[in-house]
Each structure stands twice: as structure tokens, then as C-alpha cells.
Amino acid sequence: MLKTFKLGGVHPPENKLSADSEIVELPLSPTVFIPVGQHIGAPATAVVKKGDQVKTGQLIARSSGFVSANVHSSVSGTVTKVDLVPDSGGYPRVGVVIKVEGDDWDDQIDTSPDLKSEISLTGPEIIEKIKEAGIVGMGGATFPTHVKLVPPRGMKFEMLLINGVECEPFLTSDNRLMIEKSDEIVVGTRLLMKAMGVDKAFIGIENNKPEAIRKMEKAVNGISGISVVPLKVKYPQGGEKQLIKAVTGREVSSGALPVSVGCLVSNVGSAFAVYEAVQKNKPLFERVVTVTGKSLRNPSNVKVRIGTPVSDLILFAGGVPEDTGKIISGGPMMGKALATSDVPVTKGTSGIVLIPEKQAARKPQLACIRCSRCTNACPMGLEPFLLMTLSENSLWERLEKEMVLDCIECGSCSFSCPASRPLLDYIRYAKAKVGQLVRSRKH
What CA–CA distances, in Å, run from 286 to 24, 135, 305? Predict the structure, then answer.
């Protein structure tokens, strides 16, 4: 019987339209806009200025705190300005604008296609290389990986979980990466294990990705301590706590980190980026992104440079269909609608989904009928109908007691509500308000 988490969860239509589309490289754009804050934590500080010449892979913004990450140029050319650039929500953020002139890579990057499987560095040396390369969680959370690899005082890791679940409908970039780069992902897994000082790793993959499972099982064959775990298809199995529960049976308590049960979770994209950083001296300046939608002419998985305008990806996949109502960065369950497609791809951009107008339009909101479907669907054991009511009435302290900060914003509640109530919208707002309340007590 396939493993899965037990509490809550839903099964949205999968719509993996691009599952069989091999990864293709997107041509370079004339100009890129590279934000210095593409990660959780403090934005990096730009170390280049207008008029500077940069190479592909060159450091252009240095991490500015413990929880921060370096940012590198994804192209070679001339810095035209260091200025405010709109992010995916339309808000201005500091970024480096580069006019592309050729593609001259930093001399230290090994561009050969040969697999480099021998690991010669120590654990601390691996962590330092990961830090230098600006690796972050590429499943969407974008937490700096080098910080994640250092457990809090008094805690230690026992095992590594590689997240190959990709439970979001439509998204297939991780699936294709496992199929096409399985050996490199396994080397990246071994590097993370050495950095953590553990001898066990599990690669969790949902059972709707049979080719990825076969490829990864073949890649780990004969390698001690790493095993592939096929999982039952259930959303949101890609959540850290849900994946840990599904694979190990261990439960991360409210407010606790995965290390509290001896685990570290890393996305397959991050494992691949770790391989490239440590074995090939290649910083994180490009990633695989799914560009898809039911009306899109050519749903694709593209390898794209960070800072490339989203509009270029859409054009590559056939252009914006006439019936498009919404463009989403990420998947339809947890992603966010873009105010404009003239925003850059970042380290956390896993997918661009174009939703037709008929499906994008919200249904009329009706009264809650107390059916409890949202509660049954919540993988964190919360009561979304109650949290929304409390949020509507600005009862922030009560929301804190009802554990609103435990919400992982998976959208299972809104998806399952027959009254089309905007549960997640109100809960997101409540989380922000309660977070402010908690932080105010610490000052």
C-alpha cells in the first residue's frame, strides 16, 4: 500500500499537460531584471553599479545577513541601472538591470556535460560552496539552503528527505528534472547528506510520475543509504510536514521545525542546484520552469535564466491565449496571480500557469452551510470556517489561540468549499496580522 499523510488533503484535477515535454533552453532576452531579494530573509546588497561589465555567474549582490543569499548575474553584459524593479505582486523591489551582450561565463564554472560523482569536500566545505552559490529552496519557499543545513543548538539531523512530490496541478518541472537529471540529483543528495552528517535519505515521489520513479530508482541502485519512496497521489503532500509524516510517520508539532524530528526536506531542484554548485562551481542563475495552461498552444518545461521577463516564457509557449483570465506564478493552488507578465523569473519561480477566463472568475460567495468540508480537507487540523469568521471580525488574539500561524496556505479549504467562500484570502490576511502581533511583543 502506498504511503501518504493521513490528516486532510484533497485531489484536484492534475492537468499535467507538459509532463511529456522535454526541458528546452529558452533563448536569452535582450535585457534581464535581477531582484536582489529572491529569498526569505534580508535582501542581498548590490555590489555592482551602472556601467559595470558582468559575466554569466558573476556575483552581483552579496548576502547581507545570516538569513540571506548571494545573487549572481544570469547573463553577460552591461549593468544599465540598479533601481526599483516590480516583483510578481507589482511592488517595487531593488534589482539589477543588465543589457545582454553575448554569453560569456565566469571562468571557474565547469560547463562540461560530464557527470562528476566523486565527492572530495568535507561537510563544512560543501555548506560554504552552497552559501557562495546562493542556493535556496526551489520548491517555492526560497529559504537559504546553507542556513537550513546548520541545525539549532541542541538538535541534530538523522535523515534527509528529497521532495519530488510536485503535487501542485499543472506543474511538471520537477518531474522532468528527475527524468532527465536523475544522476545529478542523486549526487546532490549525497552532497547534502555529507553536509548534514547523515547516512539516510529518502526521495519521495507521487505515484503519478512512473517514469521519474523508474529513473530515480535506477540512479540510486547500488548507492547505500538512499531509497526512493513512491507515494499515493494526494495534495498537499509536498508540504514539509505532510511529506515527513507520509515517508517517516513522524509528526512535526505546532510551531516546530522539521529538525525537531531529525529531518531536513529539500526540493529536487535544490538538490540539482547543489550538485551544480559544488561539483561544477556553478551558482544558481537559471532554473527549470513549467509554462502551461489548457488554452496554451505549447505547454513547456523551459530552462530559463533568472531575471528573464515572464512575458518571454509565455511568448515561447505560444503567446497569451485570447480567453486568458489570469496568469499565475506557481501552481493554481498556492500560486499568486501576476499583476503583469513584465516581471522577472526568480529562484522561486516553479511555474507560470495561464487560466482561462471561465475558470479564473470567482463564483458568487454564499453563506457558510456548516458542512465541515474545509475542516476535513485541512492537512493541519485547523477549522478554516472559524478562522475566516475571526478574521472578518479582526479578532487577532483569538486567531493566534486557534493556531492560524500553522496554516500552510495550501488552499485545500477554498478548493473544497461548496459555498465558494474566500477562506484562504481571509486566513492569509489574518496570518499577516497575527505575525505582526507576535513580533511586536518581542520588541
Answer: 12, 11, 4
Cβ contacts of residue 311 below 8 Å, gap of 6+?
341, 342
DSSP state of 252: P
Cβ proximity of 62 and 70 under 8 Å: yes
Domains of the chain: 123-280 (3.40.50.11540), 373-441 (no CATH)
Q: What is the DSSP string of 357-421?
A: HHHHSPPPP-------HHHHH-TT---HHHHHHHHHTT-HHHHHHTTGGG-----HHHHH-TT--
DSSP conformation letters of 262-323 = TEEEEEHHHHHHHHHHHHH---S-EEEEEEE-TT-SS-EEEEEETT-BHHHHHHHTT---TT
Is the Cβ–Cβ distance between 139 and 168 less than 8 Å? Answer: no
Q: Is the pLDDT of residue 88 over 80?
A: no
C-alpha distance from residue 165 to each of 4, 208, 282 (Å): 11, 9, 26
pLDDT tens sequence across 377-433: 999 999 999 999 999 999 999 999 999 999 999 999 999 999 999 999 999 999 999
Computed over every residue of the chain, the mean pLDDT equals 96
Q: Predicted confidence band at 207 (pLDDT cuts at 50, 70, 90)? A: very high
